[in-house]
Design goal:
alpha/beta, Metallo-beta-lactamase, Chain A, seven-stranded mixed beta sheet, six-stranded mixed beta sheet, 24% helix, binds zinc ion
Length: 241
């Protein structure tokens, strides 16, 4: 497990070279929040890190319902039975294997692996504006219909799940990065992802933390570049180029 510490965030990465999957521990004065739960093999490293920091884990927040963000969840809930597990109301359906779309949603298929027969119940369903400790919930759909980002109200860091990737290069969800195409292939809707990327940059984050790839400090210029690229690609598609 590779660990990188920036501001109040610990980034925990398994398979950093081959297939990097991140989760994050957000440290507050008297508590810890885990953001995403990686793969099953992330479990040990997460528990060790919590021990090392030596503060209680009070919350686990899932940025979205894909399998590579909830792998260690069941085991963690067993180890920390009082932890409050939360996900957006919309993506809680994915945790039940329900890929159905609502009538008002863009009718493109929800992609990516979702859990089958998850044994635990989510404790809290999140909507826009909710707070988990010092983290504020912003809806940033596109990768999945219920993807959320968490904004650190103290330091302006933002944890966006797979709304952006930085592995290979920085890209808006749905834009294919050949050296690491998996987030793009698992994306529900590229246009909505682009809108969410604009939303993320409007918050002027000081630190960008994603599900796949390294954290980026002062990320505004790189995110702008990724937005431009996505805009050009989507315009070309519309023109039939
Ligand atoms: Zn994903």
């Amino acid at each position: 497990m590779r660990i990188v510490h920036k501001q109040n965030l610990y980034q925990l990465t398994i398979l950093p070279r081959l297939f990097p999957v991140n989760c994050y521990i957000y440290e507050e004065k008297d508590q810890l929040t885990l953001i995403d739960a990686g793969m099953p093999s992330s479990y040990k490293g997460i528990v060790q890190m919590i021990k090392d920091i030596n503060k209680p884990l009070t919350n686990i927040v899932l940025t979205h319902g894909h399998g590579d963000h909830i792998g260690a969840l069941e085991n963690l809930k067993q180890t920390f039975p009082n932890v409050i597990v939360s996900i957006s109301e919309r993506d809680s359906r994915l945790l039940k294997g329900d890929r159905s779309l609502d009538a008002h949603e863009t009718q493109t298929p929800i992609k990516g692996g979702v859990p089958k027969g998850l044994k635990i119940e989510v404790d809290r369903l999140l909507i826009e504006g909710d707070r988990v400790g010092s983290l504020e919930v912003y809806t940033t759909p596109g990768h999945t219909p219920g993807s959320i980002s968490l904004y650190d109200t103290h330091h302006d860091a933002i944890i966006v799940g797979d709304a952006l990737q930085t592995r290979g290069r920085i890209a808006v969800s749905g834009q294919l990065v050949r050296s690491f195409p998996f987030p793009a292939l698992a994306t529900w809707n590229k246009e909505i992802s682009l809108e969410s990327a604009r939303r993320i940059i409007s918050l002027k984050p000081s630190l960008l933390a994603v599900g796949h790839g390294n954290m980026i400090e002062k990320p505004i210029d790189p995110i702008e570049k990724a937005i431009k690229e996505a805009e050009e690609n989507l315009n070309n598609v519309m023109k039939g180029a």
